[in-house]
Amino acid sequence: SQARSARSASARAARRCGxxxxxxxxxxxxxxxxxxxxxxxxHGLVRIxxxxxxxxxxxxxxxxEAEVPAWDRVESDLGLFAAEHLVDLVAVxxxxxxxxxxxLVLPGxxxxxxxTLALALxxxxxxxxxxEYTLVDAASGLVRGWARPARxxxxxxxxxREPVTADVAPVPVGLVAPLRMQRRxxxxxxx
Length: 191
Fold this sequence. Notes:
Helix content: 25-40%
Largest sheet: 6 strands, mixed
């Protein structure tokens, strides 16, 4: 009875919709809901509890006794789904920092250095609005960030969060500087 109740609460609690899309998150128990709420995307999804049998467009699962990498995957799945279903905003895979009232937009693939550069900009005094997505208002062209703590990948796997981002009002773009990761052997340049 308690297990059935937890499964029911888990399945209901995690459905969201945005621009008609539905995602379901299967949780191991009702206690995982607090962590799910903490990791919920700041834009693009509206959390609903659905008792109907409408199939979701996407489903993500969290295993029992999930560790941080599993939560990171669920958070990433939710963020991508939310970014794909935004209304009136276009998500660009880019860090964004505000310098002198203008946005410095830093698009790049995963591992291109967006978070590393965003953290360096924060240390230099810039206001970091996001290390993951820049949101462009389709009507005005103004940009804002996907404000949630920056996700720093750890060498041993997993990640940690750095609270460097700020929720800022939309601003005009000052510069777009695409990032590209280059893998080079340091010895190639000194030897």
